[in-house]
Design goal:
Strand order of the largest sheet: 1-2-12-3-13-16-14-15
Radius of gyration: 20 Å
Largest sheet: 8 strands, mixed
CATH class of the largest domain: Alpha Beta
Bound molecules: zinc ion
Distance between the termini: 37 Å
Length: 332
């Protein structure tokens, strides 16, 4: 998979929610040969235009990630940390993290704290120093750290950190490259601060003012061991066409069009229903007077952990479906 190198580049780009500057610059560079115009807004959303004569179609993927933020530095040199976004603190224990300035730490907790009783407020960062003064030379209050984990391929699966949502950023970039003369007026939007409440997508959708929108994101796979069947999509069964989650009920005509496009092009798809959780589609569909919105998901096991797992066939299906949908003329 030639895209693995690009994915590695996207995953390595620093970009916890609220500090997406570095990843934004990486994506800008990758998008430059394919976009007619690239702009950023006040929030930091990156908007790549590809002009066409049809209706306005916004294709979005969030580029921010989860992380940890330094809240306090103890005399001992340990730093207290708060979780940026939603993830279980137990899954972070004894994992390495890195800061944008290169400082590294391991996530720890007070001795004797049982993993299943661990609260986000228990998390500490061991920066490898033994005094407050030494720690303050490495990090400041408010600095964010991200998971420092490898990306690798095993069989037909890809495993690594931040596949949510750098994989969808890759899907958007691939689509941008494939659409030479678009049938619709396209805005590829790489949003900020999704993990802390879809904040970037709100302002981006208002500014872009699209007729239609498709959000690409990862969706929790329902085939992890002991899955509780609160979702419907599984790894390896194709692109997940969102029907609903707890933030959006997708426009039935857009859902139908995605399913029909998949059928016409022989792209494997599955219907995606999610009882809990949502994506940027939740705020985009309610922007201004409303936007005809759909979503394409890539099923992911171990979502919001430092080792997320997806099927390579599902990535290809998602990219094929997004390109095919964007390339059919929508009704204005
Ligand atoms: Zn996501």
């Amino acid at each position: 998979m030639e895209s693995l190198d690009t994915l590695q580049m996207l995953i390595s780009g620093f970009g916890p929610a609220g500090a997406e500057g570095e990843i934004s610059r990486i994506i800008q560079k990758l998008a430059a040969p394919w976009a007619d115009e690239i702009t950023t807004d006040v929030m930091g959303n990156l908007i790549c235009r590809k002009r066409g004569n049809g209706p306005r179609l916004m294709l979005s993927a969030h580029m921010d990630t989860l992380g940890l933020v330094v809240t306090h530095i103890e005399d001992s040199g340990y730093a207290n940390a708060a979780v940026l976004g939603k993830c279980s603190p137990a899954l972070l224990l004894h994992r390495p993290v890195k800061f944008q300035n290169g400082a590294r730490a391991v996530v720890t907790a007070p001795e004797g704290t049982e993993a299943d009783k661990l609260k986000p407020s228990d998390l500490l960062l061991d920066l490898g120093v033994s005094s407050k003064a030494a720690a303050e030379k490495l990090v400041k209050i408010g600095d964010a750290a991200v998971w420092d984990a490898p990306l690798y391929r095993a069989g037909n699966k890809v495993m690594g950190p931040y596949l949510d949502n750098r994989l969808s950023c890759l899907v958007l970039l691939k689509t941008m490259k494939r659409l030479a003369s678009p049938q619709n007026d396209l805005s590829f939007v790489f949003t900020v601060q999704e993990e802390v409440g879809n904040r970037g997508a709100k302002t981006a959708a208002w500014a872009v003012d699209p007729d239609y929108a498709i959000t690409v994101d990862l969706t929790p796979a329902d085939d992890a061991a002991g899955a509780k069947h609160q979702g419907s999509s599984i790894c390896g069964a194709g692109a997940a066409v969102k029907i609903l989650d707890d933030a959006v009920i997708c426009d039935p005509a857009v859902v139908q069009r995605l399913l029909q496009t998949a059928k016409d092009n022989g792209i494997p798809v599955q219907r995606d229903v999610l009882a809990k959780g949502g994506t940027d589609a939740g705020v985009i569909h309610a922007a201004r007077g409303g936007v005809w919105t759909g979503g394409i998901g890539i099923p992911c096991r171990y979502l919001h952990t430092p080792t997320e797992l997806v099927d390579t066939g599902d990535i290809i299906a998602a990219a094929d479906l997004l390109a095919a949908f964007a390339n059919t003329r929508l009704e204005g």
